[in-house]
Design a protein that fits this description.
The protein is α/β, with parallel strands linked by helices and 474 residues long. The chain is built from eleven helices and 18 strands. It is globular, with a radius of gyration of 23 Å.
Length: 474
């Protein structure tokens, strides 16, 4: 499912824009994710007419900018499907680069003047620079219809997220603010909505009466990848659980929305997160943390996290975090939801697992064991598995496990393509509402406090293993 083909809802006020101003246009985020996302958007919507303005500190001659842009957009990709490689040329040709200090109001003014129409300003910048740029925008009159798109992490705490929200509110209306979480653009995550709300069989069992526990796992084989400057201050709890997995939790738990517009969906997500807190009320007991030591993954040697360049081992940053939360509302009270994500793990396990309760009574006479049914939604390659018990072959009274599997249709676009499409189209469905960003910090803050107080040991695991010994599945 893609948001691009959704009909306009009468409840949505859309501010559409066709100029994309990327601040930090020479950076890793822009080149690795944003521009390839733009390419996938253009491929999915060949008629899209976007004017791209790049800005950065470096002095980049126009020719070099266009060449770098063509590469990032895959214009020179010989393996691209027929005709596809030619499509983004228009974007490259009409694009321009402006050297600018994005924290300087006069430079920002120049940048806005370089935009043919009110732009979507995409802050592809580290959080502190984004805040400095927003501060600098205070002194400028933004063209009506300007849209601001901010990358995560949004602030560093409830207080700083609120301050940033207040700053943004002083600049433009909330309808024009996009807080980006590319997980909301992942096709599997969006497919959750179709699975839940277009199939009557799931909703009656989607509650604490029938669900025993839920796991949302995002284990990566990637390590630090030269990102110490950011990651060593964030850690897995902030980088993944706060920024992404809590939003996935919200989609797993929401009440059926009346429609798929941003107000309906984001309102329901906010309700879930407002009810979410560390399971059992004890943030130390509900969480675990660890960091990797030296090891090997697929022949690639990883140093200990503590020895990675730019890391301050004394900071005690975790590369693997696990947090069990409860959603204290009528539907979910009592069900543990375990969110886990880590780096340099042996297996890239990315899935949502809903484990149902056993039947209240298994008729006597059955042999074998009836495992609790599970619904597993795998994030990339996108598929779902439903594990059930059936009568076995041979002796029909001996139970056997069976798995029904289906592939989800792959989205046309990359997650960043989905996100950019929403921004250009004025559709906030896949962007995080201001109060939701604050809620995500509110949920993890007691855990951060418990960790700072030393109430939860920082365990270790060799890179390439499933995690610390004893961290079995729940
Ligand atoms: C990013 C995190 O937001 O998401 C990274 O900063 C992480 O640390 C990444 O690796 C995971 O998302 P994806 O889509 O690249 O698997």
């Amino acid at each position: 499912m893609s948001q691009r083909n959704r009909p306009d809802s009468p409840n949505v006020r859309r501010v559409k824009t066709r100029t994309l101003l990327v601040l930090g246009a020479n950076g890793d985020l822009a080149h690795r994710l944003l521009l390839p996302g733009l390419r996938s958007l253009i491929d999915a919507e060949p008629g899209l007419d976007v004017r791209l303005i790049g800005a950065g500190r470096k002095d980049v001659p126009d020719e070099d900018w266009k060449q770098g842009l063509a590469e990032a957009l895959g214009v020179k990709d010989e393996h691209a499907p027929d005709g596809a490689s030619a499509r983004p040329l228009g974007v490259v040709e009409s694009s321009r680069y402006v050297q600018a200090d994005v924290a300087d109001a006069r430079d920002l003014q120049r940048l806005l003047e370089a935009c043919p129409t009110a732009p979507a300003v995409y802050f592809a910048l580290p959080p502190a620079v984004t805040i400095a740029a927003c501060e600098a925008l205070r002194g400028i009159e933004l063209p009506p219809g300007t849209v601001l798109a901010l990358e995560k992490p949004f602030g560093t705490s409830v207080v700083t997220a609120r301050q940033l929200n207040e700053l943004l509110a002083a600049l433009i209306p909330e309808e024009q603010v996009y807080r980006v979480d590319h997980f909301l653009g992942k096709s599997t995550v969006l497919n959750l909505l179709g699975l839940r709300f277009a199939n009557r069989i799931f909703e009656p069992v989607w509650n604490s009466t029938s669900v025993d526990h839920v796991e949302i796992i995002y284990d990566e084989k990637l390590g630090l990848e030269q990102r110490a400057g950011y990651y060593d201050h964030a850690g897995a709890l902030t980088d993944m659980i706060q920024s992404h997995l809590l939003l996935v939790l919200a989609l797993v738990c929401i009440e059926p929305p009346s429609g798929l517009d941003a107000d309906d969906l984001r309102g329901e997500m906010a309700q879930v997160l407002r009810a979410t807190r560390p399971y059992g009320g004890d943030p130390a007991a509900a969480s675990r943390r660890a960091r990797y030591t030296a090891g090997t993954i697929e022949g690639r040697a990883f140093p200990s996290y503590a020895d990675e360049e730019g890391v301050d081992p004394a900071r005690g940053t975790e590369t693997l975090a696990e947090l069990t939360v409860g959603v204290e509302n009528w539907r979910w009270s009592g069900v543990p939801f375990t969110l886990r994500s880590g780096k340099a793990l042996g297996d890239a396990r990315k899935e949502i697992i809903i484990t149902f309760k056993p039947v209240p009574h298994l008729p006597t006479g059955f042999l074998g064991c009836a495992s609790p049914p599970r619904l597993r939604i795998i994030l990339g390659p996108d598929c779902l598995h439903l594990d059930l018990n059936i009568n076995g072959a041979g002796d029909p009274f001996t139970l056997e496990p069976v798995t029904l599997s289906a592939q989800f249709a792959k989205g046309d676009m990359t997650p960043y393509g989905e996100v950019l499409g929403g921004i250009l189209d004025g559709d906030q469905l896949l962007s995080i509402r201001g109060d939701v960003a604050e809620q995500c910090w509110r949920i993890i803050e007691p855990v951060q406090q418990a960790w700072r107080a030393g109430a939860v040991p920082l365990e270790e695991y060799p890179a390439g293993t499933p995690g610390p010994a004893g961290w079995g599945a729940h």
